Amino acid sequence: MGPVRSSSKAGPTPCGGQNQSKEPKTPCLPVGPVATDPKGCVTIAIHAKPGSKQNAVTDLTTEAVSIAIAAPPSEGEANAELCRYLSKVLELRKSDVVLDKGGKSRDKVVKLLASTTPEEILEKLKKEAEKK
């Protein structure tokens, strides 16, 4: 009976062996701007509005989170300010908030390296949007 079970043999697995119970959750989550990438990191779709008077979450749509940034869109200043602002709003370290896509575009994707859930992040963004 022992040699029949070949599922536990040691060999290269896709995803580097990180195939825990995270898989079933992933397909039903990307409803809205906050999602989880295949590696388990939380990502946020953002529509940036640089050159604003102050930093603020202006709108939460199903496509993206609109964020006004009080920095000019030149030499990556607005991108740095966006990451700083998000780290403050989401109560994460600055090093845990990184720009994933859209360095020269208003539509960006920010990746959160800290262990958190999309639900938590969405809740904090909603609270910040209500402050305006």
Q: What pattern of helices and strands is seen along the backbone?
A: EEEEHEEH
In CATH's first tier, which class applies?
Alpha Beta
CATH topology: Conserved Hypothetical Protein Mth637, Chain: A
Q: How confident is the prediction overall: mean pLDDT?
A: 82
Fraction of residues in H or I helices: 10-25%
- Structurally, the number of domains stands at 1
Beta content comes to 25-35%
Which stretches are poorly predicted, pLDDT < 50 over at least 5 residues? 5-29
In angstroms, what is the radius of gyration? 18 Å
GO cellular component, one term: cytoplasm
InterPro entries: DUF167 (IPR003746), YggU-like_sf (IPR036591)
Biased composition (Polar residues): 1-21
Region (Disordered): 1-31
Layout of helices and strands, plus pairs?
Blueprint: E1 34-36, E2 42-50, E3 56-60, E4 65-69, H1 77-89, E5 97-101, E6 107-112, H2 118-130
Parallel strand pairs: 2-4
Antiparallel strand pairs: 1-2, 2-6, 3-4, 5-6
Task: Briefly characterize the structure.
The chain has 132 residues and is α+β, with helices and mostly antiparallel strands. The chain has helices at 77-89, 118-130, and strands at residues 34-36, 42-50, 56-60, 65-69, 97-101, 107-112. The chain has one domain (37-130): YggU-like (Conserved Hypothetical Protein Mth637, Chain: A).
